[in-house]
Amino acid sequence: MPMTPLITSLLDTDLYKFTMLQAVLHQFPASYGEYEFKCRNTPQQPLALLQHQLEAQLDHLCQLRFTQDELDYLRSLRFIKSDFVDYLELFHFQRRFITVTTAGDNLVVRLQGPLIQVMFFEIFVLAIINELHCTRLDTPEVRAEGQRLLDEKIATLQAFQRTEAAQQRFPLLISDFGTRRRFSRDWHYEVIRQLHTAVPEIFRGTSNVYLARQLGITPIGTMAHEFFQAFQALGVRLRDFQKAALESWVQEYRGDLGIALTDVVGMDAFLMDFDLYFAKLFDGLRHDSGDPYVWGEKALAHYHKLRINPATKMLTFSDALSIDRALALHRHFSQDIQVSFGIGTHFTNDMGLEPLQIVLKLVSCNGQPVAKLSDSPGKTLCRDATFLAYLRQVFNVAVPASAD
């Protein structure tokens, strides 16, 4: 049976891959990175069974090029620079930078190569693995359950719009962040299409550039952990890597894409570096680990301390959200500060089955280990225990009660 390609466009990825890649190309194009795949839960079927299918899909991915229409679309985004689009016109993935093997029931995926290549693989690889896994579980009954659950979400949002929206100081803004963990490409399209049609006042965008273009909605995204992590190995003093990353972003985007990610070494350590200069330059902050209420109150207190009116800023929540969690957070914070929500798996892979919890994370840059000290136990990722201990010492981050 011939292989059906799961990725047919190089736009079928998250916007922040383009925005980070542009900064890498302009500011540290010679950097070299290594990424490792990890599944955080136990799949219903061993992922090792997917090896040969994944290899075939990667072979296809490495044949894709950007079309002229796609390049024109990217050029139309005001923060994408002309020389970066010229680079993308020449771009194609190099197959030698990604290897797939197995260890028992586990799938072992490693990326090694120039950051301007390997950074771009992540979302495609995760989306492919998810869809290959989910195809084995796909039935009409599963699709029907997914539609029923989506109908419930839409009904909840429509009820909020009817009964509560007018009472809120700031509107409820929700976007799709679910490309990497989607059940399938066609289901992802359906979810976004139905949400955009049913609740356009609330559903404002998607991180997926291809679907944003296809459906005429806003692509959403700024930066991910890997951008900050790379600065741990780019020649600045380790204590200063967050400030260096933020300054790099400011210089690249000059006021665009102003939502800063906070949890690479934890919120407390981030706020120590997020001084008045950065707090004025960035539009807001993104939460991706730890207690969202504690995080949000810390952000509010920090803005008050700096004598910045929180109502001029935005908090974006994106960690394991559901509609109910998003509504509760909105009710809690929206009288004081603008809030928005990026919802992933709950939108694109809520089918009545346990979804995979898979990641593909940067573990070294330029031959040096890098790490993320998450505010959530179990999300910290580093393969070098000595560097991890040193990073904790430098930023005065305690070892959590539960092992990482």
Describe this structure in words.
The protein folds into 2 domains: 164 residues, nicotinate phosphoribosyltransferase, CATH 3.20.140.10; 174 residues, nicotinate phosphoribosyltransferase (Alpha-Beta Barrel), CATH 3.20.140.10. It contains 17 helices and 12 strands. Helices cover 44% and strands 15% of the residues. α3 packs antiparallel against α4. β4, α8 and β5 form a beta-alpha-beta unit.
Brief synopsis:
44% of the residues lie in helices and 15% in strands. By secondary structure, it is an alpha/beta fold.
List keywords for this structure.
404 residues; alpha/beta; 12 strands; nicotinate phosphoribosyltransferase; 17 helices
How many strands? 12
Tally of contiguous helical segments: 17
Q: CATH top level of the largest domain? A: Alpha Beta
Strand count, sense and closure of the main sheet?
A: 7 strands, parallel
The gyration radius over C-alpha positions equals 20 Å
GO molecular function, one term: nicotinate phosphoribosyltransferase activity
Domain Nicotinate phosphoribosyltransferase N-terminal: 11-130
EC number: 6.3.4.21
Domain Nicotinate/nicotinamide phosphoribosyltransferase: 174-397
